[in-house]
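A student in our group prepared the protein record below, which I am reviewing. I have pasted the whole thing underneath without changing anything:
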Amino acid sequence: MPIVEDASRIAAPQEALFALSQDYALRREWDPFTRDLKFLGGAGEAGVGVRVWVRAWTGLTMEVEYVTYNPPHVVAMKMLRGPFVFERFAGTWLFRPHPRGTEVAFRYSFTTRWRRLRWLLDPVIGMVFRRDVRARLRGLKRAAEKTDILRRLGSACG
């Protein structure tokens, strides 16, 4: 199963960055990957077992389920339904304290559907995902360090 991961040090508190990463009202302001997000099944906030519908910048959609939700350290989701090319897909955000802020890592893992074509598909998809992971981390860093978005989260996070 290929894994694509990158990390960035962000000059902001771990709790606030975690909260921002899961705040769907503010997500589209900083996340270049996301075009639309909706909680499903009557849920109104993230938590283990909560399902979410996501539309990516590519137009592709996916239904995911939170499998880990441990504020302010880690959140992970797995695909329930999505692009046919994927047999399995998961994403994880990791937040670790750092003397000058927070180390934020973002990871995708995936399995493409056609075993005999993985030699071709996996590197291409990995390239696209590397670009997306880096862009998402840059977006989070820019928003947290250069805008007022963390203040808009509310006093409980800052």
In short: The CA atoms of residues 47 and 69 lie 6 Å apart. Strands lie at 3-10, 34-39, 51-56, 61-70, 74-81, 86-98, 101-112.
